[in-house]
Write a structure and sequence with these properties.
The complex is a heterodimer of chains A (611) and B (296). By secondary structure, chain A is α/β, with parallel strands linked by helices. In chain A, 21% of the residues lie in helices and 32% in strands. Among the domains of chain A are: 144 residues, von Willebrand factor, type A domain (Rossmann fold, 3-Layer(aba) Sandwich), CATH 3.40.50.410; 94 residues, Sandwich (Immunoglobulin-like), CATH 2.60.40; 168 residues, Class I glutamine amidotransferase (GATase) domain (Rossmann fold). Chain B has 296 residues and is an alpha/beta fold. Chain B is elongated, with a radius of gyration of 23 Å. The chains are: A alpha/beta (611), B alpha/beta (296).
Chain lengths: 611, 296
């Protein structure tokens, strides 16, 4: 227990008043009489006849009546509309991520969080203020600081949960800035703790109270979904999906693969607790379409039981190779899919009308305006300086990057390479101990992949990873492929959409079926779309020129709905979930109530002795 | 001390009085009261058939001459009247100026004297019970010669202690071998009441007289202000704020108490007197009691 208003203890000065009461208590003369029987009769009769006659002279009674009236007034909480100095600031960060849709607490975790939030509002003192931050797809201050409980309640009741992965970091950082200038402040986090990004959150001295919501873990989710051209049969597509069982039970459930409105295949999957099942489907795809992968399981989180991927039919890429002769590279390019390859060793040939240009140690006189795959080329404006380095060892590579999918650099030896610094537009994919060996990035709307050594002076072409890398690179650099991959994204992420420059507006149809018109700035060819808070397939375009793009959750951290009792912050700081909701229950009502009871008891006792 | 209790002039006047019993006497011994028993007084009562062994002196020879059958003449028997005086000697009786207890003793002595002079038997039951020798010499006293000793013993009684009027009356009703006349001398201020005791006496067949003795202080309290009264008998405490403006209300309450007692007695045929301890004895004994025909 603690005191909300310590100053009220000054009222203890009134304790001597009690002593005064006792002094007021009458000193009575003692008389011995034959019997008090007659006196009792007399008092009984006079009390019955004149109940108010006694009140006239009883100072004690008046005082106690006054006390009682005051206590009752206090219970009624009277107030004057007046301005007062600001009290404490409480920041309520409510997690509105997809995992809060879990139904392990009825009706849902988000509803439970709302109920907890309302409790916190109830516990708010009159001078306290509260800010409500909703951490959904984006972090929003949904209620600016106010002490109006009705407003706060209305705001909380109107909140909506999103499909987005947890973004508590932004919410907490926002909360931190809000409380920075406040002497007494508290941040209340209402979340299930299913969050991965808090390790970067270095909180200062702020007071963070974590209210854990949720208790179940019964969930199966789609962790990844991808579609690829079938390498064995280029007329078909291969759909990869992985399903993870986060619950503590083994599950047996059907999964389905749909192409648009047509079910292609259904099968039953057995998945032990904590296990992952990879599913591979081979599907014929006659037209561009959207693959939907669906788990038919009764679990506690429904949103991750579906995922979508947009699949465009492959367009052959026009590739120009500047090379003095590299059999490995040529062969790898030929086998990398739908490629129309032209080769030249003449730097004067202009690379117009090509989707992709490959430089193998040669630099054309006219710099090609296309996506570039460059081997062993440094004399460009990409780098500030370079020098040769002998026998660099490959120490690390980013296997998560699409270029390095299924590519490993084990047992790859390089005799010499260019030592450069990674340019600002690129990221380093493969690194030696000192410098990057492969970088990739996007510059002025064109993609570039740069390999800093001659593959012929390495053992890489002898490894199976080389042709896979070239295939990945062709796919990554192929503009039509690019657009296909770009049309599938995660919830909350932005998407670059190409638009008809002549159109005045485009129509956007959201997964729920609502459609809206978006005006287009004249002359712009692309548009950044960030309103991807809802999972599903969006339709976008003008007239019949429709483009579909899919927005997925596909977040294993979000699908893992085990609620965490502890948050890990930066610096190893742990925030334990509070056992019960600290709602600042004001105890004074009970004290006042007890005072009344005591008072009545005292009055009864007094009467018992005197009547 | 006997002389102090009742002066000799009063005693002489009392000697001339005769106790009037409203009922047939139920005493065991012969006395001077009519009873329903058959015996050997001068009052003819009835005839009955002669059976062998009857006293031939009581045969009615005239009847034999006329009817040629033997009849025995029966006469009423005179019996004594047992009178029990219940004397409340509890602490509350010691109050008053003069003391209620002394007044009650005087009344008891006077009644006892009249009873003994009338050849009846008197028992004075004092409660709470005094020391043994007093008690013994107060029970079953007969003959006018014992009167002086009764007076003596009564005058030596000291009040004090706690008693339960109901219980004492009930006990007296049970323990008395013969119901007769019962005189209750008390202030009737017992916390448990008096009703049950008087009813017990009535059930036993007693002819009852109740004398309620008050002290002037009880009707005219002289203490005012914020008071704490302590019951001398029970020790009970009562805080009272009392002023002159409430005196009449108090007096009304006290009067109502006595009136209730009187009404209770009247309804049950109990002779009742309510007297202050300051009342003159002669007035009570020779006027009030005569008016109600306790004696003549």
């Amino acid at each position: 227990m603690s005191f909300l208003s310590l100053a009220a203890l000054w009222f203890a000065v009134s304790l001597p008043v009690v002593v005064l009461f006792y002094l007021l208590k009458r000193k009575r003369k003692v008389r011995l009489v034959s019997s008090v029987l007659l006196w009792q009769r007399f008092l009984n009769e006079s009390r019955a006849n004149a109940p108010f006659q006694k009140l006239k002279r009883s100072m004690l009674l008046l005082l106690q009546l006054l006390l009682l009236a005051l206590a009752v007034l206090a219970l009624a909480r009277p107030y004057f509309a007046d301005y007062s100095l600001g009290g404490a600031l409480q920041v309520l960060v409510i997690d509105a991520s997809a995992s809060m849709q879990a139904t392990d607490v009825s009706p849902s975790r988000f509803a439970a969080a709302q109920a907890s939030a309302l409790q916190l509002v109830d516990g708010l003192q009159d001078s306290d203020k509260m800010v409500i931050v909703l951490a959904g797809a984006r972090t929003l201050v949904v209620q600016s600081p106010t002490s109006e409980k009705a407003v706060l309640r209305r705001t909380i009741e109107g909140l909506q949960v999103s499909d987005a992965p947890t973004r508590l970091l932004e919410g907490l950082q926002l909360a931190e800035t809000l409380v920075k200038d406040h002497a007494s402040s508290e941040i209340h986090l209402l979340s299930d703790g299913a969050v991965s990004d808090l390790g970067e959150f270095a909180d200062s001295e702020m007071k963070l109270v974590f209210h854990e919501i949720g208790q179940g873990s019964d969930n199966i989710g789609v962790a990844s979904l991808d579609v690829r051209l079938n390498p064995d049969d280029r007329s078909s597509q291969v759909v990869f999906a992985s399903v993870v069982n986060f619950s503590t039970n083994d599950y047996r459930f059907p999964v389905e693969l749909w192409l648009d409105d047509r079910m292609l295949e259904a099968r039953v999957v057995d998945l032990e607790k904590g296990g992952t099942a990879s599913q591979v489907f081979v599907a014929q795809q006659p037209t561009n379409g959207v693959f939907t992968f669906r788990i038919e399981a009764e679990d506690q989180l429904a949103i991750d039981n579906e995922a979508y991927v947009v699949s465009l039919l492959p367009q052959p890429a026009e590739v120009l190779l500047y090379s003095a002769g590299n059999a490995f590279l040529e062969r790898a390019l030929h086998t990398s899919g739908t490629v129309n390859l032209q080769q030249t060793s003449d730097p004067t040939v202009a690379a117009d009308e090509f989707d992709l240009v490959v430089l193998d140690g040669l630099i054309p006189q006219e710099w090609p305006e296309a996506n570039l795959l460059a081997f062993n080329v440094v004399h460009t404006n990409w780098f500030a300086g370079w020098e040769r380095a002998d026998a660099p060892a490959v120490v690390d590579w980013k296997s998560a990057h699409p270029l390095l999918r299924f590519v490993g650099f084990d047992e790859v030896l390089i005799s010499e390479a260019w030592s450069i610094a990674t340019p600002f537009w690129a990221e380093s994919l493969v690194e030696s101990a000192q410098f990057p060996l492969i970088v990739a990035g996007e510059q002025e709307g064109l993609r570039r992949v740069w390999i800093g050594f001659d593959v012929l002076n390495s053992t890489w072409p002898l490894r199976v990873s080389f042709p896979i890398f070239v295939a990945n690179a062709v796919q990554w650099l192929n503009p039509s492929m690019t657009s296909g991959h770009q049309l599938t994204t995660r919830i909350g992420e932005t998407l670059r959409l190409s638009v008809d420059p002549n159109a005045e507006s485009v129509t956007l149809e959201r997964p729920g079926g609502q459609s809206e018109e978006w005006p287009i700035t004249a002359g712009s060819s692309s548009l950044m779309f960030g309103d991807t808070a809802k999972q599903g397939v969006y339709r976008w375009g003008t007239g019949t020129n429709q483009v579909r793009f899919a927005v997925n959750l596909l977040d294993a951290a979000e699908s893992d709905i085990n609620s965490r009792a502890t948050l890990n912050l930066a610096g190893g700081r742990l925030v334990e979930a509070t056992e019960s909701l600290r709602a600042d229950l004001e105890l004074w009502r009970w004290f006042a109530l007890a005072a009344i009871v005591v008072l009545m008891g005292e009055w009864w006792y007094y009467h018992k002795r005197t009547a | 001390m006997g002389q102090e209790l009742l002066d000799s002039d009063l005693l002489r006047r009392l000697e001339r009085l005769q106790l009037l019993s409203q009922r047939w006497s139920k005493g065991a011994l012969r006395g001077e009261r009519r009873s329903r028993n058959r015996g050997y007084s001068v009052e003819f009562a009835d005839y009955r058939n002669y059976v062998a062994g009857d006293d031939l002196r009581y045969l009615d020879w005239n009847l034999y001459g006329r009817l040629d059958r033997l009849f025995l003449r029966l006469y009423e028997e005179d019996r004594e009247l047992p009178v029990t005086i219940f004397l409340d000697a509890s602490e509350s009786m010691t109050f008053g100026e003069p003391s209620k207890f002394r007044f009650a003793k005087q009344v008891a002595a006077a009644i006892g004297h009249v009873v003994l002079c009338g050849s009846d038997r008197v028992s004075v039951r004092v409660f709470p019970e005094p020391k043994d020798h007093h008690r013994l010499s107060l029970i079953n006293v007969r003959s006018r010669h014992s009167s002086l000793r009764l007076l003596q013993n009564l005058s030596e009684l000291q009040g004090g202690g706690q008693s339960d009027l109901n219980e004492e009356l009930r006990k007296g009703a049970i323990e008395s071998p013969h119901a007769g006349m019962a005189v209750v001398l008390s202030d009737f201020l017992s916390p448990t009441g008096y009703e049950a005791g008087i009813k017990a006496l009535m059930a036993r067949g007693f002819q009852i007289m109740a004398v309620s003795v008050w002290s002037a202080e009880e009707f005219q309290p002289t203490s005012y202000g914020d008071l704490k009264f302590v019951d001398a008998e029970t020790g009970a405490m009562q805080e009272v704020s009392f002023g002159k403006f409430r005196l009449r209300r108090y007096q009304a309450a006290a009067t109502a108490y006595v009136a209730r007692l009187a009404e209770f007695c009247r309804r049950r045929g109990v002779a009742f007197w309510s007297v202050s301890s300051a009342t003159s004895l002669e007035d009570l004994l020779l006027k009030q009691m005569r008016q109600l025909e306790l004696w003549r």
